[in-house]
Specification:
The protein has 5 helices and 5 strands. With about 160 residues, the protein is α/β, with parallel strands linked by helices. It has a single domain, classed as Cytidine Deaminase, domain 2 (3-Layer(aba) Sandwich). Strands 2-1-3-4-5 form a 5-stranded mixed β-sheet.
Length: about 160
């Protein structure tokens, strides 16, 4: 999970939501990824998706049997579906996703009756650290957006004054 957190920090330096993931097989990291949706202009470029794509290439198989995914944020429904389809055996996540968590927080696709494959889910590994990393990012982002809105208001006021004068 520490490596996943490093990857999340890298995502943040790229202007992405700081989520990182690593896939482990037989005690070795075989693939890793981080959020790249903004930079790649691809809504599916979540950390989990990037990681399982790379792992499929490494293993030359989309079935990622007997693997464990470590991810800093609980998978969303899209990622949960892909993890199930790729047969990842175990998912370990740090922080719960209170809005879109699909591994037990909002819904649990890993235990849903319609699932054709099941995975073991472990939640809360380094939860506080993962949550703080995400919260700091969104707090900073809200502050930046507020600053941008204020700057736009000032520009609009100045523009209006120039038209009057």
């Amino acid at each position: 999970m520490r490596r996943a957190m490093e990857l999340a920090a890298h995502a943040e330096t790229q202007g992405e939501v700081p989520v990182g993931a690593v896939l482990v097989k037989d005690g070795e990291i075989i693939a890793e990824g981080w959020n790249e949706s903004i930079g790649q202009h691809d809504a599916t470029a979540h950390a989990e998706m990037q990681t399982i794509r790379k792992a499929g290439e490494v293993l030359e198989n989309y079935r990622l049997l007997d693997t464990t995914l470590y991810v800093t944020l609980e998978p969303c429904p899209m990622c949960a579906g892909a993890l199930l389809h790729s047969r990842v055996k175990r998912i370990v996540f740090g922080a719960p996703d209170l809005k879109a968590g699909a591994a037990g927080t909002v819904l649990n696709l890993f235990e849903h009756q319609a699932a054709y494959h099941y995975a073991d889910v472990e939640k809360g590994l380094l939860e506080d650290e993962c949550r703080v990393q995400l919260q700091a990012f969104f707090k900073r982002r809200r502050k930046e957006k507020k600053k941008e809105r204020k700057a736009m208001q000032i520009l609009e006021i100045k523009s209006g004054q120039e038209k009057e004068g």
